[in-house]
C-alpha cells in the first residue's frame, strides 16, 4: 500500500529510497513488468535510472544483450554496451502536445509555456519547456543554480494546477551544444541525485529549442548520462548501472 511504501522509502526501517521498484510478469510478453512507486507511494510510468538497473539484471541473468521492459507508459528496450557496467535504454518517443504532458489548459507551443515564478514584472523563473517521456517534466533554462531555492520552488511547481498529474521539475544549464547540467525536484520524491527521465526530457527539449545538438552529455549531482534523440524520434539514454541503487532485491 502507499503507506507501506512511504514507510519503506522514508527509511523506517531500512536504507530508504527515492523509488521502490517491483518486478512482475509482463502481460504484454516483455521480459518483465517494472512497477514504479515514488517515495510518496504514487505509482508512475517511467524511471530511467531504475530501467538501466533492471535491464542490467535481466541481461545478466539471461545472458542476453537486449531486453524489453513493460511499464505503465509502454514497453522500453534495454541493451548492453561494450562496458558491462553501462547499459542503454530506448525510452521511446517524447510527447510534446499539451494534452500528452498533460497540462490542464491548451498551450500551442510547449517549447516554452507561461508558468513564471515570482513577481509578474520580474519573474525569477519563467517560460519552461514541457515534455512527457513516459512521465511529465517541466524544464526551466537558467544560467546558474545558485539563484534558485529548488527545494522551496519544487513543491509549488510540482503541485501547480497546470499539471493535473503533477510534474518533475528541473533547472537546466546549457554549458555547450553537447553538455547540459541539471538539478531535479522529482514528483513524489523531492530533490534527488539523479533522474534519468529528467535527463531525457532536458535533452530533447534543449535540442527542440535549438539550444544543443541531438546528442548530449547530461550532468546530474549523482553523475553523467549520455542522451541521444535519434532521427527516428526515439530517445536513447546510456549510463552506469548504479548498483549502489540496488540496496536489496527482495524476492517474494
Ligand atoms: N519521480 C518520477 C519517477 C522517477 C524518475 C526518476 N527516478 C528517473 O530516474 O527517471 C516521476 O514521478 O515521474
TrEMBL record:
Superkingdom as given in the UniProt entry: Eukaryota
Pathway, per record: Amino-acid biosynthesis; L-lysine biosynthesis via DAP pathway; DL-2,6-diaminopimelate from LL-2,6-diaminopimelate: step 1/1
Entry's Gene Ontology cellular component terms: cytosol
UniProt-listed GO biological process terms: lysine biosynthetic process via diaminopimelate
UniProt catalytic activity: (2S,6S)-2,6-diaminopimelate = meso-2,6-diaminopimelate
Root EC class: isomerase
PROSITE patterns: DAP_EPIMERASE
Coiled coil: none
InterPro entries cross-referenced by the UniProt entry: DAP_epimerase_AS (IPR018510), DAP_epimerase_DapF (IPR001653)
GO molecular function, one term: diaminopimelate epimerase activity
Entry EC no(s): 5.1.1.7
UniProt keyword terms in alphabetical order: Amino-acid biosynthesis, Isomerase, Lysine biosynthesis
Similarity annotation: Belongs to the diaminopimelate epimerase family.
Annotated protein name in UniProt: diaminopimelate epimerase
Source organism phylogeny: Eukaryota, Metazoa, Spiralia, Lophotrochozoa, Annelida
Amino acid at each position: 500500500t502507499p503507506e507501506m511504501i512511504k514507510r519503506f522509502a522514508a527509511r523506517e526501517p531500512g536504507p530508504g529510497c527515492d523509488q521502490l521498484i517491483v518486478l512482475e510478469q509482463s502481460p504484454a510478453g516483455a521480459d518483465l513488468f517494472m512497477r514504479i512507486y515514488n517515495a510518496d507511494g504514487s505509482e508512475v510510468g517511467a524511471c530511467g535510472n531504475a530501467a538501466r538497473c533492471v535491464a542490467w539484471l535481466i541481461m545478466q541473468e539471461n545472458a542476453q544483450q537486449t531486453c524489453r521492459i513493460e511499464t505503465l507508459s509502454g514497453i522500453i528496450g534495454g541493451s548492453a554496451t561494450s562496458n558491462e557496467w553501462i547499459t542503454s535504454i530506448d525510452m521511446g518517443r517524447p510527447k510534446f502536445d499539451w494534452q500528452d504532458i498533460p497540462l490542464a489548459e491548451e498551450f500551442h507551443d510547449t517549447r516554452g509555456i507561461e508558468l513564471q515564478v515570482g513577481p509578474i514584472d520580474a519573474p525569477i523563473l519563467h517560460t519552461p519547456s514541457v515534455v512527457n517521456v513516459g512521465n511529465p517534466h517541466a524544464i526551466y533554462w537558467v544560467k546558474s543554480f545558485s539563484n534558485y531555492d529548488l527545494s522551496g520552488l519544487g513543491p509549488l511547481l510540482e503541485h501547480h494546477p497546470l499539471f493535473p498529474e503533477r510534474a518533475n521539475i528541473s533547472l537546466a544549464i546549457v554549458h555547450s551544444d553537447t553538455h547540459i547540467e541539471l538539478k531535479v525536484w522529482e514528483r513524489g520524491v523531492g530533490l534527488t541525485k539523479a533522474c534519468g527521465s529528467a535527463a531525457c526530457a532536458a535533452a530533447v527539449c534543449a535540442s527542440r529549442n535549438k539550444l544543443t545538438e541531438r546528442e548530449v552529455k547530461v550532468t546530474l549531482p549523482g553523475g553523467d548520462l549520455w542522451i541521444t534523440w535519434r532521427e527516428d524520434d526515439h530517445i536513447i539514454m546510456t549510463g552506469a548501472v548504479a548498483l549502489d541503487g540496488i540496496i536489496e532485491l527482495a524476492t517474494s
